[in-house]
Amino acid sequence: MNNNYILELKGVRKAFGDTEVLKGIDLKIAKGEFITLLGASGCGKTTTLRIIAGLETSDAGQIFLDGQDITSLEPNKRSVNTVFQSYALFPHMNVADNIGYGLKLKRMPKDLIAKKVQEMLQLVQLSGYEKRMPEQLSGGQRQRVAIARAVVNEPKVLLLDEPLGALDLKLRRQMQLELKRLQKQLGITFIYITHDQEEAINMSDRIAVMNHGVLEQVGTPNEIYYQPRTSYVAGFVGNANILRCGGEFYAIRTENILMNGEPECNREAVVLEKSFAGGQLRILFELPDAQQLTASRYGIDADVQVGSRVMIGWKKENAIPVAEE
Amino acid sequence: MMDEACENKAKCKEEKVKCCMRSRAKSRSNWMLLAPIYVFTILFVGLPILYMFLLSFLSRAKVWGVDFTFTLDNYKRILEPMYIDMLRESFQLAVLSTSIITLLGYPYGYFMARMNAVWKKRMMLLIMIPFWTSSLIRLYGWIIMFRSNGVLDKVLMGIGLTQKPLKLLYTYPAVVVGMVYALLPFMILSVYSSAEKMDWTLVEASRDLGASAFKAFWTVTFKLTLPGLLSGVVLTFIPSMGLFFIADILGGNKIVLVGSVIQEQLTKGRNLPFAAALSAVLMVLTSLMIRLYRKVTRTTELEGLV
Amino acid sequence: MKTRKWPFIYVGVITVITYIPIIMTVIYSFNVSKLTSVWEGFSLKWYEELFRDRDLKEALMNSLILAALSCSCAVLIGTTGALGMYRAKRQSVAGGRTAGTLGVKAGGGRLNDVIAYVAMLPIMIPEIILGMVFLSIFSLMGLPFGMVTLVIAHTTFCVPYVYSMVKARLVGLDKSLEEAALDLGASPVRVFFDITLPQIMPAILSGVMLAFAMSFDDVVISIFVTGPKVNTLPVKIYTKLKTGVTPEINALATVMLSITVTLILASSVVGKIRVRNVYK
To answer: Most buried in the list A130, B206, B301, C222, measured by CB within 10 Å?
Structure first.
């Protein structure tokens, strides 16, 4: 076994009743890596995380942590910690007791626990909050406590289940940066779950795109974005058009659709709709063979009228062949 | 290739066994948790109730106790005019008390749910204090009130409403008052607990959509508090057929409830099988009401019961 | 919405009416006369008589012991039962994969539902039925009537209060709390004592309070299962009320009322202090 991998999943399968949630997951995660499991809700990413944490048992397959088979190890005996989506702070314990809980279980002396808790609070910028109860904290503060509580145990792998999902956009951006900083500083492997592609691209060393219990593609944000292997990945990460050409499928990013006068514009299309969203103007076209395409432009207007006929096209290198699901 | 597949299969099996062992260990510890309630419930609730049904088909021994010979006489006896009348009377009293309780308790619980948090707490305390004092003693208060030439008579005659004592004690109205008084908190609490959970913005939404205040109440508030109301009905109707001591203390021996007859058969009549038959009838009636409640509200638990 | 006056008036009037009989008993407990209809002057003689009454004191002790014993049994049975039922449900929802275990679990689930239903019956059916049932079953079993039969009978109707309170709390409990503790390295036993128990403690306590009140107040069932030597307070009061007027009862009512009010006020004050401390 290669010792560079801290965590390895081999053919992990899981079904709830008759529905197969995981259909054989193979994944190798390197030491100190920040890897994101990206996918829509219900794709199996949370189940994967829970199986790694030991909160769920897999039906088949194996899990290795640092070269050791932990497939049927109890969750409390795994050197893996989780930051829960709902934070799961113990409401009857104050911040210090919450953070120190894992250490107390390891029978660490009290003064040492206090010292470590202080260090942790400093790290997450919550010094002076040790006596507060969870209900007296804001969402962002709870988030930090939850991270501190997991990290203080120095796990080999930290699992984060959509930890920023409940925060507003601004706080989320800030926490993204902070998490990234924390990960660099601690050197712990992070396995991060999100359905937000932007978040995934911002933070990750590698992204694993999941769909219906299958890993569609694992790669760096660059690879995922520019060389999507399947139409699902192309559609999910950055918005791409999937175009059928004979028996082949191609993904063309919306920003790569050209129009009006550029030399590659060799197809006639009808403008169906114009809309403005997220700082981008989106134009929906229909090609003569009834396939629809979306183009996006920065700015709020372009001189196309709904219902008019225009010439559109794309550069050859921007049409990426993908596998249809 | 073959070898590897075999090995994988073996491993898979091994894994499965391990997983199964884990979940089996879980369910074993679970059975230990469940054991007390299983044993206790079967031994001291389930079997005794079954025995009651069995008993209702047995005959009475000559002196005291039970003769294990099958008979339908106990049920036939219930059909005698005297007992049919008693059942009807008991039922009527329960209907009357429950109606009054509903009319008084529903608005009470509803208004209470609309108060601010401080008042809610205060009202809760005010309701709980009588609830925590002995129900018998509270009834005794009514004896003081109702007694001939008692407090109520004094007040009424004092302000000139009546000329002579009303002799309210040991009358039907006195029993109704006692029932209403003893059971009102149940209705209030169950209406309150369902009204409290209600999303009041729904009422605002319906007003916004053009409903009049009454229409909004009827189509939204009432519908959503119905489980609480019905649960209150169940919680007051059922006990009101059995609370023989209220009829006993406030009604003298004049008002006879199913509960009173059962008690009499057990103590004076010494007729266990007949008492069992009456209990069985009451039990079936009760279960029917609970089933109906569950069907109507589509819930399993009674609102505000605890 | 506007705040109107009349809801307050309505609630106020009914509340006052419910307090009238209670206030009457308090007032008349200080009456010199034995007759409840006339006021002849202030006196404490009924209190003296009350504290001299040995029978009543014994009945009070019996009632307290009975309520304490039944509540203890109810806490044990109700809490473990609620936990077991809740876990069984959770496991069957999480679901095993193999058809065999699934079948067994589904079967266990149905049986659990039946048991839970039967366990709740004692507070759903009229008390008189329970009284009748226990009288007949205990005489069939040949159990001597007394404290043992009383405790068994009272436990049956105390269990549902604890059980349903704890069950409701468990259902509302954030499952990830227990998982978080497991994840941080706590053994399942530790998880129970560190996380689950503190979370369900308020529910257990309010269940016990209700159960205690119900047990302490019960006449209907006690009358049938009590023995010749053991009298509970409500049974004693009942027989006294049936035999005639005893102003002693007024005094007793006042004493009980003041104890309840003190306890309730004390608990709410303690609650306030605790809340304040938390926010300091």
So the answer is: C222
Say whether both B19 and B163 belong to one domain. no
In this predicted structure, what is the pLDDT of residue C100?
36
pLDDT for residue B39: 96
- The number of residues making up chain B comes to 306
pLDDT digits (tens, 9 = 90+) for A184-239: 988 999 999 999 988 999 899 999 999 999 999 999 999 998 888 888 898 888 77
CATH of A5-226, one of 2.60.120.10, 3.10.20.70, 3.40.50.300, 3.40.640.10: 3.40.50.300
Tokens found for residue B301: 């638990």
Distance CA B229, CA B102 (A): 8
| Separation between Cα atoms, residue A30 and residue A188, nearest integer Å | 10
pLDDT band at B302 (very low <50, low <70, confident <90, very high): low
- Per-residue b or e along A227-243, where b marks 16 or more CB atoms closer than 10 Å to that residue's CB: ebbbbbbbbbbbebbbb
Q: Is residue B209 part of a domain?
A: yes
State how far the alpha carbon of A196 is from the alpha carbons of A237, A241, A275, A276, B47, in Å: 9, 19, 22, 20, 58
CB atoms near residue A56 (< 10 Å): 20
Of B45, B130, B262, the CB nearest to C122: B45
CB atoms within 10 A of CB A204: 22
The boundaries of the domain holding residue B47 are 2-55
Low-confidence ranges of chain C (pLDDT < 50): 1, 96-107, 278-280
First vs last C-alpha separation in chain A: 32
CB C71 within 8 A of CB B28: no
Of C97, C181, C185, the CB nearest to A15: C97
Contacts of C236 in chain B (CB under 8 A): none
pLDDT of residue B14: 53
Q: Using CB atoms, which chains have 3+ pairs under 8 A with A? A: B, C
pLDDT, position B254? 79
pLDDT tens, position by position, B44-92: 999 999 999 999 999 887 766 778 888 888 899 999 998 999 889 888 9
Pick C177's closest partner by Cβ from A90, A106, A133: A90
The answer on B83 and B30 residing in a single domain is no
DSSP A133: -
**C176, A136: Cβ pair inside 8 Å?**
no
- Rounded Cα–Cα distance for residues C141 and C138 (Å): 5
Q: Which two tokens stand for residue C54?
A: 């040995």
Q: What residues of chain A, 127 to 156, have a C-beta less than 8 Å from chain C? A: 133, 136, 149-150, 153
CATH superfamily, with its number, for domain C55-258? MetI-like (1.10.3720.10)
Clarify whether residues B117 and B42 are in a common domain: no
Residue B12 pLDDT greater than 70, yes or no: no
Sorted by where each begins, the domain ranges of chain A are 5-226, 254-315
Quick check: B44 contacting C, CB < 8 Å? yes
For residue B14, the chain A residue with the least C-alpha distance is A60
Same domain (yes/no): B287, B182: yes
In total, how many domains does chain B have? 2
- Residue A64: pLDDT band by 50, 70, 90 thresholds? very high
For the whole prediction, is pTM greater than 0.95? no
Q: Where are the domains of chain C?
A: 6-43, 55-258
Please identify, in words, the CATH class of the domain defined by A254-315: mainly beta
Residues of chain B above pLDDT 90, percent: 27
Tokens of C271: 């609650």
The sign of the dihedral angle between the CA atoms of A30, A34, A39, A45 is positive
User: Residues C122-146: pLDDT tens digits?
Assistant: 988 899 999 999 999 998 888 889 9
Q: Is B58 in contact with B70 (CB distance < 8 Å)?
A: yes
Torsion of CA C181, C187, C192, C196, to 10 degrees: 10
Pairing of strands A248-253, A320-322: antiparallel
**What's the confidence (pLDDT) of residue A301?**
63
On whether the CB atoms of residues C211 and C158 are closer than 8 A, the answer is yes
